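[Q] Does anyone have a clean structure-token version of this?
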Amino acid sequence: MATNIQLTEQLHAAFSAGNYEEVLALVADDIETVSYSNGYTAQGKEGFRAFFMGFANAFPDIKITHRNVIANGDWVAVEFGATGTNTGPLMTPNGPVPPTGRKVEFNVCEIHQWKDGQLARIVNYQDALSLMAQLGLLPQPAGL
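[A] Here you go.
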């Protein structure tokens, strides 16, 4: 039986490799997905799929690199960097944004709740301001 940290690592490795069926195999049918920067909340696998495919479609070469991972019981907190090239439309709360062709690197923190080897809840916090600035959709914040 894998530890919850190993499950989080497996989830992100499968996503980075484009193995989306493997990602979904790690997820509970009634998963709760929350993404504060996108104003997105969903219940169930299809809602989770829509969330992660929004990034996979916008950045087909997206890769996740873990920086810090902390676990306590069923809970895992993971800080990571994501890199990719925006060659597909990016879904935003205001609708899709056409691809810019720009390469980006942004910071993310996720909280995962694992139950019986399946992801039951994910809460995603990301640096949306920096991402939008790198895509040329906002002025570049100072210091970035």
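[Q] Thanks! Anything notable?
[A] The longest strand covers residues 103-115.
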